[in-house]
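Annotated sample (chain length 208).
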Amino acid sequence: MKLRKLEMALEKTEGFELPNVSYEQYKTPAIVAAPFLHMAFMSGDIEGKRVYDLGCGTGILSIGAAILGASEVVGFDIDEAAILSAEKNAALMRSEIQGADIEFIISDVSELMKTDELNRADTVLMNPPFGAQEKGNDRPFLKAAVSLGDVIYSIHNKGSRAFIEKFIKPAVITDCFTTQFPIRKTFDFHKKETQPIAVEIYRMEFRR
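Output written by the structure step:
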């Protein structure tokens, strides 16, 4: 699937009905999600793979992975309302998803590492909290991703590379690109209708 076609498909997904500021719930815009997923697809990390989406929110990354041919997709989120929205979006996108096995589960990412029931994922996708409300909110996601997946794709504030390289060892960063993440006015403290922030999208690989 071409990048623009994927972006157009993902634009159909709906965002949070009642976003929770403590979880930093912002819908990943299609203009960011599409190149994020396309990068993973072109690297051979989506098609035919088992994919986990940590902090899946309303499911845009999970759904995109399913559209691109993942064999199994599981999205995890602590927020039940977000999971319900993700399931609604997946039902809305059923014709694009076609035969992919996609599921959404209510779970704190910190608890995922404590279960023996999960098979290891080929690829982990995530857009974790940036730590705007509480510093370090991205750390449980990185820890879980390294524990659960062979390859990880993640979005972080620009300038995070040194921290991430140290935190994810023995996983390593294999690729990175910078883009703009437009945050739409969501909470009362937002003054602008849209505020673009510079982010970095990383590909990380767990090497045994």
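Annotation: The beta strands are 50-54, 72-77, 101-106, 121-126, 149-157, 172-184, 194-205.
Annotation: Helices lie at 3-10, 30-42, 60-67, 80-92, 94-97, 109-112, 139-148, 161-167.
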